[in-house]
From TrEMBL, chain A:
Domain ABC transporter: 5-219
Protein name from the UniProt record: ABC transporter ATP-binding protein
Keywords tagged on the record: ATP-binding, Nucleotide-binding, Transport
Name of one Pfam family that matches: ABC_tran
SMART domains: AAA
From TrEMBL, chain B:
Transmembrane segments: 70-92, 113-139, 151-174, 186-206, 293-313
Organism: Nonomuraea deserti
Organism classification: Bacteria, Bacillati, Actinomycetota, Actinomycetes, Streptosporangiales
Record's protein name: ABC transporter permease
Keyword Transmembrane attached: yes
Keywords linked to the UniProt accession: Membrane, Transmembrane, Transmembrane helix
Length: 288, 321
C-alpha cells in the first residue's frame, strides 16, 4: 500500500540555514503519527513542505490523496462568523461535508453566528479542526494542535480527532513538543532534532525494541564500546555510581544490569539527548 | 473566491463607493446650481469672451473654487489611501494573522487565490478611478468651458482622463507588494503612502519631458496667450537670433529694481528690449497634447504596476509558508 506521506532526501533551506536536511520517511496510511522534537527542530517546516506551503530545496515530499492542514495558532478570519468560516471552506474546496461540519459544531455547542475572534481557545481549535475534517481529507496535518489549550480542551480536541479516525480511513500527522500528549493516541513516532530525522517507526515496535538499563557506572563504558548483535547504546551514561542507559536491541547482559522496558517519553528523550543516534527503517547502525 | 474577495474587502469597497457617491452628489449639486445661476443671470451671449460676461465669470469662478478646495488634495491623497487601505492589507494582514496558511492550503491553489484577488480588486480600483475621472470631466466644463481645459494645471490633469485609474492601480499594486515583502500591514501602509507621494512629485517633475516642448518667439509681450499651456522655460533672444539667459548692460536697456509689488520698471525694461529688436522665446506644451501626456503617464504607471505584480506573485508563491 502506498504510504500516506512520503519524503525522500527532503531538504528545506531558509536563506543559508537548513531547516531540514536529508529527511527520508514514510508514514503508512491509517496511522496517527506523532511528530516530536524540541522547538526549532524543523517540525513546522516538514509540515509546511508536506502541505505545499514550502517548496523543498532538495528531494521531494508527496502525499497520497487530499491533505488538510491546521496551522499553529489555528488561524481563522477574526471578523468572520463561524457560519462564514464554513462558507469559506465550502467555496474553497471541491470536496466539502457541510452537514457533517454543522452537526459537529452543533454537538460541541459552538454557535454559528459567533465571530471567530470571540471564540474561546478550545472552541477556536474545534472550529479549525472542523474546517479541516469537513474536507474529508485522506491525510490530516496538525501543527501543535494542543498548544495553548487547557486540559479539558486538549481532551475534547483529541476525542474529536480520535472519533474521526475510528470512523473512516484517515491518516493523521500531528506535532507536539510535549510527548505525554501523544502517548495514548498515536501509533507512529517521528522524531526530528536540529533539522534531522532521528526516529521514524511504529510505536509498539520501537518500545519493544528498546530497554532502559540501570547498573554500576563502571559497566557503562564497556557496553557502549562493544555493541553486540545489532544492539547498541542509544544514550545515557554514568551519573555518579549508577548509570542509566537507553539501549536498542537485546544486548548480552552482565547480570549486574537491571533491565526494564522503555516508556515513550524515555525513548524520545533518549534520542533527543544524543542527536547522533538514529532508529530509522533500513538503517541498522545505532550510535554510529 | 469571488465571495471571499467580497467578504474580506467589502469595507474598502463600500467606503470607496460611498465616497464616490457623495462626491458625485456634491459635483452634481454644484453643477446644477451653477447652470441655474447662469440661466437666471447671464446676459445674452454669456458665458463668453465679452466684457458683459465678466460678472458671470467671477461668480462661476467663486463657485468653482469653493468645490475645488474640497477636492484639490485628491490627486495625491486618494492614491495614497488606495495603496494603504486596498493594497497593504491584501497580503500584509494575511501574513500578520497567519491566515495565509489557512487560505493557501485549501483545494484552491495559492496562485489562483492571488490571481482572483489581484484581478478583482485591481479591476475595481481601475473602475473607481475611471468613475472619478468621468465625474470630474463632466463637472468641470460647467465652470471652465472656454477658460481652460484640464491640461495646464497638473493637479487637475491628474483628476481627468485615464490618470486617476492609472494612479490608483499603481498605488494598489504598490501597497500589495509592500504587504508581501514586509508581511505586516502597518509598515506596508507607511511605505505605500511614502512611495506614492515620492512617485507623484517625481512624475510631476519629469512630465515636462513627455514631449519636446513647442517654442514660440514673442515680441511686445512676455506672456503666452494661452492660459492652459504648460510652460517649460523661457529666455531672451537677441537681435542676432542667439538665446541669452539675461540681456546685460550691452543691450542698452538699464534694468531698475521695482519697489514693492509694482512691476513698472520691469515692464519698461521689457518694452525697451523689444524696441531694440529683442524677442522672448517661450517653451511650452500646448493643451492639444492632453491625451499624449495622459497616455504617457498612464503607460509609465501601468508598466510599474505590472512590474510590481510580477514581484508580488513571485515573492508570495515562493514564501507561501
Amino acid at each position: 500500500m502506498r504510504p500516506a506521506l512520503e519524503a525522500t532526501g527532503l531538504g528545506v533551506r531558509y536563506r543559508r540555514t537548513w531547516a531540514l536536511r536529508d529527511c527520508s520517511l514514510a508514514v503508512p496510511a491509517g496511522r496517527v503519527a506523532a511528530l516530536v522534537g524540541p522547538n526549532g527542530a524543523g517540525k513546522s517546516t516538514l509540515m509546511h513542505a508536506a502541505v505545499g506551503l514550502l517548496r523543498p530545496a532538495r528531494g521531494s515530499v508527496g502525499v497520497a490523496g487530499e491533505v488538510a492542514f491546521v496551522a499553529q495558532d489555528k488561524p481563522l478570519y477574526e471578523g468572520f462568523t463561524v457560519a462564514e468560516m464554513l462558507s469559506f471552506g465550502r467555496r474553497m474546496n471541491a470536496r466539502w461535508d457541510d452537514q457533517g461540519a454543522r452537526d459537529r459544531l452543533g454537538a460541541l455547542g459552538i454557535p454559528l453566528d459567533r465571530k471567530a475572534g470571540r471564540l474561546s481557545g478550545g472552541q477556536r481549535a474545534q472550529v479549525a479542526l472542523t474546517l479541516a475534517l469537513a474536507r474529508r481529507p485522506d491525510l490530516l496535518v496538525l501543527d501543535e494542535p494542543l498548544a495553548n489549550l487547557d486540559p479539558l480542551a486538549r481532551h475534547d480536541v483529541m476525542r474529536t480527532l480520535m472519533g474521526e479516525v475510528a470512523e473512516r480511513e484517515l491518516t493523521v500527522l500531528l506535532s507536539s513538543h510535549v510527548v505525554s500528549d501523544l502517548e495514548e493516541t498515536c501509533d507512529w513516532l517521528v522524531v526530528l532534532n536540529g533539522g534531522r530525522l532521528q526516529v521514524s517507526g511504529d510505536i509498539e515496535d520501537l518500545l519493544a525494541d528498546h530497554l532502559v538499563l540501570t547498573g554500576p557506572a563502571e559497566l557503562a563504558g564497556a557496553l557502549a564500546a562493544r555493541p553486540t548483535g545489532g544492539a547498541g547504546v542509544v544514550s545515557g551514561g554514568p551519573a555518579g555510581r549508577q548509570a542509566t542507559l537507553l539501549v536498542r536491541g537485546a544486548p548480552a547482559l552482565d547480570p549486574r544490569w537491571q533491565a526494564r522496558p522503555a516508556g515513550l517519553e524515555e525513548l524520545v528523550m533518549g534520542y533527543l539527548r544524543s542527536p547522533e543516534s538514529a532508529a530509522l527503517p533500513g538503517l541498522a547502525g545505532v550510535g554510529t | 473566491m469571488i465571495w471571499l474577495t467580497w467578504r474580506q474587502h467589502r469595507a474598502q469597497l463600500l467606503v470607496t463607493a460611498g465616497f464616490l457617491a457623495l462626491l458625485g452628489l456634491l459635483l452634481l449639486g454644484s453643477a446644477v446650481e451653477a447652470r441655474l445661476y447662469v440661466a437666471g443671470h447671464a446676459a445674452p451671449g454669456c458665458p463668453g469672451p465679452g466684457v458683459a460676461c465678466a460678472d458671470l465669470e467671477v461668480a462661476l469662478g467663486r463657485r468653482y473654487d469653493a468645490v475645488y478646495s474640497v477636492f484639490g488634495w485628491m490627486p495625491l491623497v486618494l492614491p495614497a489611501l488606495i495603496g494603504a487601505f486596498w493594497g497593504a492589507p491584501l497580503l500584509g494582514r494575511e501574513y500578520e494573522r497567519g491566515t495565509h496558511r489557512l487560505a493557501w492550503t485549501q483545494s484552491v491553489p495559492a496562485w489562483r487565490w492571488l490571481a482572483v484577488k489581484l484581478s478583482l480588486l485591481g479591476g475595481a480600483v481601475v473602475a473607481c478611478g475611471l468613475l472619478l475621472s468621468l465625474m470630474v470631466s463632466l463637472w468641470r466644463p460647467v465652470f471652465r468651458d472656454g477658460i481652460d481645459s484640464s491640461f495646464g494645471n497638473v493637479g487637475v490633469f491628474n483628476m481627468v482622463g485615464v490618470a486617476p485609474a492609472a494612479w490608483w492601480l499603481f498605488a494598489f499594486m504598490l501597497g500589495t507588494a509592500a504587504g508581501t515583502f514586509f508581511r505586516r500591514t502597518l509598515p506596508a501602509m507607511a511605505l505605500a503612502v511614502a512611495v506614492v507621494a515620492a512617485t507623484m512629485f517625481t512624475l510631476f517633475g519629469v512630465s515636462d519631458h513627455y514631449a519636446e516642448p513647442a517654442r514660440v518667439e514673442l515680441t511686445g509681450t512676455v506672456i503666452l496667450d494661452d492660459t492652459d499651456a504648460r510652460l517649460v522655460g523661457a529666455s531672451w533672444v537677441d537681435p542676432s537670433g542667439r538665446e541669452i539667459p539675461e540681456p546685460g548692460s550691452a543691450s542698452g536697456c538699464p534694468r531698475r529694481v521695482d519697489a514693492g509689488r509694482s512691476s513698472r520698471n520691469a515692464e519698461a525694461w521689457q518694452a525697451c528690449l523689444f524696441g531694440k529688436g529683442y524677442r522672448y522665446a517661450v517653451y511650452y506644451h500646448p493643451p492639444s497634447r492632453f491625451w499624449r501626456f495622459q497616455w504617457t503617464e498612464a503607460g509609465i504607471l501601468v508598466l510599474a504596476s505590472a512590474a510590481l505584480t510580477g514581484l508580488t506573485v513571485r515573492r508570495t508563491l515562493r514564501h507561501a509558508a
